[in-house]
Each structure stands twice: as C-alpha cells, then as structure tokens.
Write a structure and sequence with these properties.
Layout lengths: L3 E8 L2 E8 L3 H21 L5 H48 L1
Antiparallel strand pairs: 1-2
Helix pairs in contact: 1-2
Length: 99
C-alpha cells in the first residue's frame, strides 16, 4: 500500500500541491492554517497588503519561535541532565551505605 498522499494546500491565496506521508496530512493542514491565520492577523493589524511581505513576516515569526524553542530545549536538556546526575549521586550514596 502506498504510504503517500497528494494534497493541495492554500497559503496566501496560492495553491500548493504536495505529496506527503499519509500520517502527516493533519499536521500539514494545521500548519497551513496557522500560516494563513498569522498572515490575516498581520494584514489586519498593519498597513501591509502585499502577500509576499505578509508571508515573509510570518516566516520570520515562526523561525523566531523555532529558535526560541531550540534555546529553551537546550536549557531544559542541561537542567534535566543535572537533575539526573543528582539522582544518580544520591542512588550511589544510598547503595554505598547499604553495603
């Protein structure tokens, strides 16, 4: 059975044909909706009407969020690693005292 699906998504009044994995369809459609919603919000809040400008601003917005999440993820990884090391040290100490 073919695991791919051909769909069309509309972003900024343009239709984009895509071939995706079947299990990605919902996420792709949600992503396209988020992009369109962000473009509409920018259009209503600012005097920008050019779809290219709206799309560029939307791309910048989501790229900034992705980078911010990367940074937060790195900090979280370091915190989790530190906590795991603390737990490991406590377990080692406990096991040493049990001998």
């Amino acid at each position: 059975m073919d695991d791919t699906l051909s769909i069309k998504v509309t972003i900024g009044n343009r239709v984009y044909p895509l071939t995706i994995k079947r299990d990605e369809e919902e996420q792709i459609r949600r992503a396209a909706k988020k992009v369109n919603d962000n473009m509409k919000e920018l259009e209503s809040n600012y005097a920008v009407r050019d779809k290219q400008d709206l799309l560029a601003m939307t791309a910048l917005y989501y790229a900034d969020r992705a980078l911010s999440n990367e940074t937060k993820g790195t900090v979280m990884d370091e915190e989790v690693s530190s906590q795991l090391n603390d737990v490991r040290a406590q377990l080692d100490s406990y096991l040493e005292n049990k001998k």
